Amino acid sequence: MTDIPRHQADLVVTTDGPLLTCAAEGGGLGLLEGGVVAARAGIIVWVGSKAQAEVELSLAGDARWVDCGRRVLMPGVVECHSHPVFAGNRAGEFQMRVGGSEYEEIARAGGGIMSTVRETRDASPELLLARGRRHLDWMLDYGITTVEAKSGYGLNTDSELRLLEVIAELGRTHPATVVGTFLGAHTVPLEYKGRADDYVDLVVEEMLPRVAEANLARFCDVFCEDVAFNLDQSHRVLQAAKEYGLVPKIHADQLSAGGGAQLAAEVGAVSAEHLDYTDGPGIAALAEAGVTAVLLPGAVFFLGRTDYAPARALLEAGVPVAISTDFNPGTCYSENPFLMGTIASCYMGLSASEVILGLTRHAAGALSMEGQVGSLSPGRRADILVLESEDYLDLPYHFGVNPVAAVFKDGRLVRDRSGGLVSAGGLVSAGKPQAAEDKLGRAG
Ligand code: NIG
Ligand code: FE
């Protein structure tokens, strides 16, 4: 026996291929060729090489040993910007856009976000919950284990609260970790047409206090844009949000340049999102204030536009760059984060490593959750993806498909797409194989 203290694990996942820790130490992907990640009670307790595992790990009596062959292991994807709770869909609107109509033109005519608002206000909480769960299920299929979910399709006090309650219920009942964001300032509802300031009064004086009192959201977001709220109005909402203990986020410079990035810096937002039209001064402001940029290339793609965010300039300025789906019924109806990664590679020049870090560590940063998710390192949740691939370069390369073979969430196997290997005891087997028992010390 050795004196080296052993970490006791009830889940050990190993690969002979690459394990990407995505941990902040070292700065890059944290690649371990032939890596092992070990967890206990849903929390990662140890990460290292197979050789180290022999001396540093011990197995609990009911431990599960998972040999993934040469498959890539990486952290669960953190979806840090999505709008997954709504009723209806906008397939018809998509056809109008395909036919040449502009998103803003449709919005000004009372369609767009407002058409989803009308259907969402009329929907029962049960329907919203069932629909939201289906989208989170799709996300989990794609390895998304943490989801930021925004309200914003209610736009009156009761409906906004109902959406946040549905989001909270999803958090209690879905395997994914769900984080709520209040987006009462998503657009000016029809009944306030021409009276945006009065609607901002309602958001600030009635909605925000109720949201804060019921503890229904960690973040407050605002759509700062010509078709939604101007800089002053956005500033008012985010300033008030801070007073109620909510952390600011902002949809900034999505459809036009408007100073949203500077506003994010000024109010101390944790993240600024979209940034498709952000220029040099905006980038400098984000860098200076340490704001994470959340880039959403799927929305640019799906709107049929070509103005992608200046990702390379953001990275060169030292801004952490996260990538997310922006899943919503209008500008990006896709739950596939890896597709967003490929779009980011093709149109923003992001490398495979930059995409993977954008979907994990930096996305966690956009939620102030680096200590809990986004990397395979001790103390983080055991959210582990097994990819159907031996090389992480395949992620942006093999596009439009689902590269995920299996998903562990909080140490529990919640998805197995490995073609029956798990149930046959190949990829994943209950208990540990004899060889492991020989190699690893016994618990206690
Ligand atoms: O992020 N920009 C504002 N919100 C969404 C679009 C919402 C919608 O069209 O329903 C976005 O693109
Ligand atoms: Fe959005």
Outline the structure in words:
- By secondary structure, the protein is an alpha/beta fold.
- The chain has two domains: 7-75 and 376-439, Urease, subunit C, domain 1, CATH 2.30.40.10; 77-365, Metal-dependent hydrolases (TIM Barrel), CATH 3.20.20.140.
- The chain has 17 helices and 20 strands.
- The protein has helices at 50-56, 91-98, 103-108, 113-122, 125-141, 157-173, 196-213, 231-243, 260-267, 280-289, 297-302, 311-316, 337-348, 352-359, 361-365, 394-397, 434-439; strands spanning 7-14, 18-20, 31-33, 35-40, 43-49, 57-67, 73-75, 77-82, 144-150, 177-185, 219-224, 247-252, 271-274, 292-295, 321-323, 384-387, 404-409, 412-416, 428-429, 441-442.
- The strands form four sheets. An eight-stranded parallel sheet has the order 8-9-10-11-12-13-14-15. Strands 1, 4, 5, 6, 19 and 20 form a six-stranded mixed sheet that branches. A four-stranded antiparallel sheet has the order 7-16-17-18, with no helix packed on it.
- Helix 9 runs parallel beside helix 10.
- The model is unreliable at 422-426 and 433-444 (pLDDT under 50).
- Residues 83, 112-113, 116, 223, 251, 254, 299, 326, 328-331 line the site of N-(iminomethyl)-L-glutamic acid.
What binds here, in terms of ligands, is:
N-(iminomethyl)-L-glutamic acid, fe (iii) ion
Low-confidence stretches: 422-426, 433-444
* CATH class term of the largest domain: Alpha Beta
Mean pLDDT: 93
Helix content: 25-40%
In total, how many beta strands?
20
The total tally of domains equals 2
- C-alpha termini separation: 13 Å
> How many alpha or pi helices?
17
CATH homologous superfamily identity of the largest domain: Metal-dependent hydrolases
Taken as a percent bin, the fraction of beta residues is 15-25%
Structural class assignment: alpha/beta
Globally, the shape reads globular
